[in-house]
Give the backbone structure.
Amino acid sequence: MTYERAGAGRRLDVALALLDDGDGSGAAELAREAVALAPSWAEAWFVLGEALELAGDKDAGAAAFRKYLEHDPSDRLGSSPRLALLGAADTPERLPPAYVRQLFDQIAPAFETQLVDRLGYCGPRLLWQTLQAFKQNLPESPTILDLGCGTGLAGEIFSVLGGVMDGLDISPGMLAQARAKGLYRALQSGDIATPPDDLCLRYDLLIAADVFNYLGDLASTFSSCAGRLKPGGLLLFTVEADLETPDDLRSAYSLGPGQRFRHDPMALRAWLSGNGFSLLAQDRAALRREKGLPVEGLVILAQKDQPAAISHSTGGATRAPWTLPGAG
């Protein structure tokens, strides 16, 4: 480490402490000194952006976040959503995968304590409650894919269905926590929008608890989900939702102050229908608390449409127009 980088590090440590104390101006002064000493240090530019934003200088804060992106295009610290919330960039279609991966790797060991005990998170339980009226739509021992399985909170609940369950998550740290519970047949690290090919080809049930909040445009994700379900299979998920803005003023998705996406119920229904799903249930619920207030969302259950039977002129036999590889 160079002398300049060491000096920048000392200044940035104090700047972070001042940020924690709510002193944006003081933090910005030290962060400016840090980037002057180490101008290629991405994290220093991000801290400067945070400090300037807190101090009320949004334009300068946006400029610092852009400088951060020059040095870290993968956006591990989440500069692009910060720029969108400042009105300095368009709303992204999703949060940066590197940002989501690092976020959950960092909090994995304390995830359940923070989310369940402190924030009252209840997404998996809400999914289970919604499924109860439709359990007859599942076979006796269903195959299940837990999208964004995290530490296995949903797996603990859905394992009572008695089938086999696979898990997928972008964070190796979260997967390590889930693996220790011994609930899953297979656990894979990967992106929920494009599940890896070495998972089972078709499932009876896909669950996604507090996962789609990190994606904005869900059209392609629902298409991927449809490709992973058997005909008649179920997709069960929670989303944070914009339930207050009038219908004619809502966008399909928007970023909330917590840097998670909120979705328009009408857009969700359109995306599902456009990818061959029928809506079975849509329940409004409080998913967790944030700053003491409930986070409103939806619990949605959709079913993949069955292939329509067609009659052929040769003998009048009725059969499905195609056979899905791996179906059944």
User: Anything to note?
Assistant: Residues 311 and 317 are 6 Å apart (CA to CA). Residues 3-20 form the longest helix (18 residues). The chain has twelve helices and eleven strands.
